[in-house]
Write a structure and sequence with these properties.
Helix content: 25-40%
Shape: globular
Oligomer: single chain
Strand order of the largest sheet: 1-2-3-4-5-6-7-8
Number of helices: 9
Low-confidence stretches: none
Distance between the termini: 28 Å
Radius of gyration: 19 Å
Number of strands: 12
Length: 303
């Protein structure tokens, strides 16, 4: 059985907690409402009740007193033990991973997944496979078949990749949600991002009731219902906004993610403006997650 995140009080009911993915803080514009430095950002996040930060290079957070969630990529079976052992020894809470490239055969997929589950169980350390494009879980049907072969698998749900990549609104989306119940039941981490059928990351608004936002409310609620129905006492379900910038400096180069959409105008620094303040957007996503939790009957842990 894949290990999962537990509260210090093992007798507490399964609950939702809030994390932050560090990508949301990368290259925030000068006009963002966020504090200007990482120390100030982390301090404010902790005041909001954020329990942990997820970062691909946790050494960047060594000076801050906040729990860390790891990230990684597994391309070879041996990677599972290396990443799991390294991250557990470093004291991280858990790790979410991208697995493979999406070009694998079913037997190749199995050869990658089996050591992940065994390592997580042996180390008693949560290693969760992310639903992500360009990985073994990029296809919904193949992911459902993978569950049939490995029912103990547990996921980090980044559902924008499926919503956009599968253009889920093309057809009966409610039937697709029902088909995804085996996935929803196994979600133990959620990356908060909302997309449309054509763009994987878009800005939302206060009290946003557009159809694509309602679809994410429903998917997140179903993840929380599945978690509530299958989790043991003391298990925690983190929700972590992961809102990538359009680009960010990397050494002397500019690295382009292309996730945040750009407006037509330019800011005072003559750079194209992202369509939203990702710091504020994270708060909107937490609000939506709270609504989904209430609808699912899932308690929200108070820090």
């Amino acid at each position: 059985m894949t290990s999962t995140l537990k509260a210090l009080n093992s007798e507490s009911p399964p609950s939702l907690v809030f994390h932050m993915n560090a990508a949301t803080l990368w290259n925030l514009p000068d006009w963002s409402r966020a504090p200007k430095d990482l120390e100030g950002q982390i301090s404010e996040l902790q005041q909001w009740g954020v329990d942990a930060i997820q970062h691909p290079i946790p050494a960047f957070l060594a000076d801050f007193d906040i729990p860390i969630v790891g990230m990684g990529r597994i391309n070879e079976p041996a990677d599972a033990d290396r990443i799991g052992q390294t991250h557990k020894n470093a004291g991280y809470l858990m790790t979410t991973i991208h697995v493979g490239t999406g070009m694998e055969s079913d037997s190749d997929m199995d050869a990658l997944v089996e050591p992940i589950l065994k390592t997580s169980d042996r180390l008693d350390y949560p290693i969760l496979i992310e639903t992500h494009r360009a990985t073994i879980t990029q296809d919904i049907r193949r992911t459902l078949d993978l569950i049939d072969r490995f029912p103990d698998i547990r996921f980090n749900a980044d559902l924008s990749h499926w919503y956009t990549g599968h253009e889920m609104t093309y057809g009966d989306i409610s039937a697709k949600f029902d088909l995804l119940i085996p996935v929803f039941d196994r979600v133990r981490y959620i990356h908060g991002r909302i997309g449309t059928p054509c763009c994987a990351q878009v800005a939302v608004q206060t009290n946003d009731d557009r159809a694509f936002v309602e679809h994410f409310r429903e998917m997140w609620k179903r993840c929380m219902v599945g978690f509530n129905n299958t989790a043991t006492q003391g298990e925690l379900l983190p929700f972590a906004p992961e809102l990538l910038p359009h680009s960010m400096p990397f050494g002397e180069m500019e690295h382009y993610f292309y996730y945040a959409r750009l407006l037509g105008d330019r800011g005072e620094d003559d750079h194209p403006r992202e369509e939203s303040d990702r710091w504020v957007q994270a708060q909107y996503l937490w609000d939506i997650a709270k609504e989904s939790a209430r609808a699912a009957g899932l308690p929200i842990k108070k820090s």
